[in-house]
Design goal:
By secondary structure, the chain is α+β, with helices and mostly antiparallel strands. Helix content is 17%, strand content 42%. The protein is built from 5 helices and 23 strands. The strands form 6 sheets. A 7-stranded antiparallel β-sheet has the order 10-9-8-7-13-12-11, covered by helices on one side. The protein has a 4-stranded antiparallel β-sheet with strand order 16-17-18-19, with no helix packed on it. Strand 8 (131-138) and strand 9 (142-147) form a beta hairpin. It starts with 14 loop residues before the first strand and ends in a 5-residue tail after the last helix. The model is unreliable at 79-83 and 357-366 (pLDDT under 50).
Length: 366
């Protein structure tokens, strides 16, 4: 049995160190260990900002309580006492120390070694959530999003749904990835990844595997080479590598022949896609509602007057959650009615909008 001399004074800062199996902090005064983290449990390490490192952990058993994330703050060097030391120099020094520690954690925890060689790679791909340009690398068991500030490795088993939808402007398609476990940038979690791709960009990529290896591991799902519109190529590679179905719009069409119409959720504008078995709103917040979860669809501001050119739609789920989509062009009413009626979803029509009803309940000023 291993006996460890542990500090129990509640100190949360100290000198970091490593042994063959663990990363740990030591009390600077008595050299006792404050905490220990097994290196084989660290699945991801990245710089969150110039002085903070975020460690992500792998749970031992699903359903149990476990440590899933730890943040390490790396201060400026404490022994700098020169009077002419500038604050920006101290920050730069701290940044170098944080980068050094992050690199050492990645090396000792062997993060990324299990990924093997890149099988397919795409450069300078725009993500609208989280925002930025990323290189997308496909490995055998995961996909990596590598940007200028953040690096996310997402196991294929963490992707629980995927959509490819065309925006009404016909210039872009959006590949939406739903995640079982959200990725994080700072304190912000992202349960969805939105990849926005121009429809007029052509792509040609070769798969970095031998033909016999492709046949053995993927059968007919993965080809040796892909050529065509970039959004289609990325989608086909994702479908083959992750083994997931990609949901595309069904037969619903707007008055302009598109697959989605513009509306707003609270103060955020976006597009609502009525799909074959669900509805999807993007870009922010991403809202995904299955038909089976909807108890009623309510249309508001549908009076016969010509003054109202916009209508509102409220989807009420069986658990009582309401999703209002406001500012829909009135020309879409008949298409939406037919869409819900075909799926046997109960409809309700009211004249005043939820916004108007709220105003009517407000006390008037004296």
């Amino acid at each position: 049995m291993e006996v460890t001399d542990t500090d129990v004074h509640g100190i949360h800062w100290g000198q970091y160190n490593f042994d063959d199996k663990c990363f740990f902090l030591e009390n600077l005064t008595n050299n006792k260990k404050i905490l220990r983290v097994p290196l084989n449990k660290i699945t991801h390490s990245q710089l969150n900002n110039k002085t903070e490192i975020v460690l992500e952990m792998d749970p031992e058993k699903e359903g149990d309580d476990f440590l899933c994330e730890m943040r390490l703050f790396v201060p400026a060097v404490s022994d700098i006492k020169a009077d002419n030391e500038k604050p920006e120099n101290a920050v730069e020094n701290s940044t170098r120390r944080a980068e050094t520690l992050n690199g050492e954690i990645i090396s000792r925890a062997k993060i990324g070694e299990f990924t093997g060689e890149k099988i397919v790679s795409f450069q300078d791909i725009l993500l609208t959530m989280p925002r930025g340009k990323y290189t997308i690398d496909f490995y055998k068991n995961l996909v990596r999003f590598h940007g200028s500030s953040f690096d996310h490795k997402i196991p294929y088993k963490n992707i629980n749904r995927a959509f490819l939808v065309p925006l009404p402007d016909d210039n872009f398609s959006v590949l939406v990835l739903g995640l079982e476990k959200p990725i994080h940038q700072g304190s912000t979690g992202y349960p969805y990844i939105l990849i926005q791709i121009r429809r007029d960009i052509e792509e040609n990529v070769k798969v970095n595997l031998k033909p016999e290896q492709i046949a053995a591991d993927y059968g007919d799902a993965l080809k040796e080479e892909y050529e065509g519109p970039q959004h289609e190529v990325i989608t086909k590679v994702l479908k083959a590598m992750a083994g997931i179905s990609i949901i595309i719009p069904g037969d619903f069409k707007t008055s302009n022949g598109k697959s989605a119409f513009r509306c707003s959720v609270k103060a955020r504008e976006g597009h609502l896609f009525p799909l074959a078995k669900a509805l999807l709103f993007i870009p922010k917040p991403v809202i995904y509602i299955k038909h089976d979860d909807i108890i009623r669809a309510e249309f508001h501001r549908v009076s016969g007057t010509n003054q109202n050119k916009l209508i509102d739609l409220i989807l009420i789920q069986k658990n009582g959650v309401q999703h209002p989509f406001v500012g829909i062009q009135k020309e879409e009413l008949e298409n939406l009615k037919r869409y819900f009626e075909q799926r046997k979803i109960c409809l309700l029509y009211t004249s005043p909008s939820p916004r108007d009803r709220q105003k009517s309940r407000m006390p008037s000023s004296a």
